Amino acid sequence: MSRPNRRARWLSAELLRVALLLVVIALATSLSGLLVRIDHLIFDTGQRLNWRPMPADVMIVAVDKESLDRFGRWPWTRTWHARLLSKLCADKPAAVGFNVAFSEQSNDPHADALLAEAMAACGNVVLPLVIEFSGSGGHVLESPPIRELFAAAAGIGRIGLRLDADGVARSVDLREGVGAPAWPLMASELLRVARKLPAVDASRVSLKAWPVSGDGIVRESTQRLFFSGPPRAVPQISYASAFDADLPPGTFTGRIVLVGATAVGLGDAVMTPVSPPGQPMSGVEVQANLVLSMRDGRMIDDLPLPADLLCTVLLAAVPLLWLPRVMPLPGLLASVAWILFLSAVCGLLPGLTQIWFAPSGALIAGVLAFPLWSWRRLEAVRRHFDEELRELQAIFPDRRSGTASLTKMGGLSFEQRIAWVLAAKKAMRDLEAQRNEALAFISHDLRAPLASVVCQLESETECDPQRLLPPLRRALAMAQAFLWLARAEALDRRRMREIELTGLLDQALDEVHLLAERRRSELVRCLPDEAVWIRGDFESIERCAINLLDNALNYAPPATPVAIGLDTRWEDGVRFWVENEGPPLSAEQVERLFQQFSSGIGEARSASSMGLGLYFVRKVAERHGGQAGVECRSGKLRFWVSLPAIEAGQGESAGVGELRRRQRESGNRSFLS
Amino acid sequence: MRIAYLEDEASLAGTVTDWLHAAGYEVEWFSSGVRCAQAVESRRFDACLFDWLVPDLSGIDVLARLQIKLRQAMPPVVFTTGRDSEEDVVGVLAAGADDYIVKPLSRPLLLARLEAVTRRRSGAGAAVQRDFGRLTVDYGRRLIALEDELVSLTDRETDLALYLFKNVGRALSREHLIQVVWSLTPDIDTRTVDVHVSALRRKLGLIPKFGWRLTSIYGYGYRLERARSPG
């Protein structure tokens, strides 16, 4: 499979996985309400950003501090309420709502009668009904106004709000009651009485016969309020001012008037989305906002659950539209921008379209998308990195970190991996340097013998083939040496097989037999009788042994013995060596000996003495994870090559399976060819 | 003895043809793989000498085509190749060639290889007893003597030695040796072959000093041949 294909497949698989993870996280967050505070924050911020100019047709007659100073401690006698009402009604308001619960008889029955009379005279007074938990037994009670007032009221409605877990009032139930959702809100009753109810809401509020079931609270049609402004934004007139009748006529005409307490510590103040910290909104003002909200058709619906979940799922996956396409930094910026954008849209949506979508699930997915995707991408990069490293290690086996780190790749830190790559890069540069050196070498040393032959052939005189042969042989041997070297450079440890070392060395001995006879040198065989197995490349190791024997025969004084031997236990592997008599080498000579184009010890210039021979030996040893070196001891030079032992467990694997594989391969080949 | 010689390089072909003529072979030279294949299909040749790289149809392709057409009547094939890497050599042998020679060609080696492959075909080597200088091989009694003294060998070693001596100069694959020598032993390891070959080299002195070379052909197999005399 080609790389781009594999990458595309990886990408789509990863995308799917990350998308699924994000969707699950988003749904879990959304359904569990874990981050509902974030939803509240966004909703509240949106409410504050959406202030509208306050309409003047709703007014509050406020029981404020001034009124308390004037009339004394609350509650006041209902005679005053009756008087206030008479004054208000004289000004012809559209409707009057008392945010005061008259659910118990006062001490003065006469005052109750007066109030009832005033209400009846007005004909557009709406009284509240409170649904409350009784102190004992957890029963829920509906507390309507006392009978006289109930009869005189134009409408009865609830003033209850719904408080969220954080104690903030954001929504109301349009209908609620014990056993059946029988009671509308006081706000909607006020609007009905004032004939300002929007057409849509009229059907909702129309009274039906509710089937009564049980004695628990039954609620219906929860909606969120839209607050028109912060606390004290609704026009207010002090109760005392209204009472003392020093207001110009027409102050209340055509308006909906709400009477209720605003003084601190009195009445039912609650926290609202628009209240600054520590400044709750008085109950009567919330009612005023509710009236405005309902009248203007600005009540906010929550998105229905299926649609909400669908939106969450879709929005959760949105960051994956850009993350796979861009680099990390733009990805991060885009993610941040997305989160801000989503928050802003969700915050402003209720004010604009009367729909609320709780975005915490989609937001948390937006926050996590970048780290999650970056993590997956980093993993993929690491895998790719490791794969490349493995290949690099196979190409550049290194004694220091060779076989060990191949298996322990997982334990490497990123820095170590980077160090590895840097090492590989350096090796590449070295290779390039070597190539240049090789080119220089070829253009000079290889050219020389060929040029001499051409020169001889071009000369007028008849030339002797015997004189042409040696330079040609030299050039050929050199070309061959280069070929071997190129092969050694390309040795791949993964493709090496088990080979038998004693047989190989015997074969190398056979190869140099003729040369030894010519030099009258005795070849001494110090090889063990048993088989010695290693993993390696037969041809190049054989060539190593031949090169070493060749060198030894060339540099040993004539008629002195040359020995070849094998140490089956050498450090953690095996070692073979070739020994000849000769003068000891200086450290500098030893250093130069295994370099690529050193010209060996003496002046003889055969291919192997061009330095290529020993350099080849070193290369092959290194490629096998071994080493090459030389020891000088008591008038003898011993060149050696150490090779790692075969790893345990590999010995058996090359048995039957190997044979079958080879048979199969050779079978296939003859069939195909 | 007629030899089909496929080689696209005319000067080299001339030299080799001269060598073969001098050695008493009849040679027909082809520079085109297609024509060579057609000729070998229609007329009888005793051996083929193919170059690997020929412009129109490579030696390997000719070999494959002939194997399909001629089957049992296929003459032995020796390959000449400039490529001496293990992969290439083993590839040639596995494709069905009888032997190979790496260029530059040497005259004695070429003649020795051709002789080895044609001798086998003519059924030589069926003698009951043969004398190989220091070694005497008695095929009938399955005994091998070194300087008139019996060498003590295991049964398998004897089988292997007798088979190698019957096929001097031939490239024999490990798998082939396993089939011939270890036919009755199932699941034999190729390493066993290596171990036995090493033992034979040691016990019978199959080294150049005594006129023998026992060569491993990379990962493919072995060849027992007479060492070329010095000079």
Structure description:
The complex is a heterodimer of chains A (673) and B (231). Chain A has 4 domains: 3-47 and 302-384, no CATH class; 56-295, no CATH class; 387-428, no CATH class; 429-657, Heat Shock Protein 90, CATH 3.30.565.10. Helix content of chain A is 51%, strand content 16%. Chain A has 23 helices and 20 strands. In chain A, the strands form 5 sheets. In chain A, strands 1, 2, 3, 4, 5, 10 and 11 form a 7-stranded mixed beta sheet that branches. Chain B is α/β, with parallel strands linked by helices and 231 residues long. Chain B folds into 2 domains: 2-121, Response regulator (Rossmann fold, 3-Layer(aba) Sandwich), CATH 3.40.50; 129-226, Arc Repressor Mutant, subunit A, CATH 1.10.10.10. Chain B has 8 helices and 12 strands. In chain B, strands 2-1-3-4-5 form a 5-stranded parallel beta sheet, with helices on both faces. In chain B, strands 6-7-8-9 form a 4-stranded antiparallel beta sheet, with helices on one face. In chain B, a hairpin with a 2-residue loop joins β6 and β7 (135-138). The radius of gyration of chain B is 19 Å and the shape is globular. In chain B, 38% of the residues are buried. Classes of the chains: A alpha/beta (673), B alpha/beta (231). The A-B interface holds A 476, 487, 497-498, 500, 502-504, 506-507, 509-510, 513-514, 517-518, 529, 531, 533, 537-539, 654-656, 658-659, 662-663, 665-666, 669-670, 673 and B 60-61, 63-64, 67, 85-86, 91, 94-96, 104, 173-175, 178, 187-191, 194-195, 197-198, 201-202, 207-209, 213-216, 218-219, 227-228, 230.
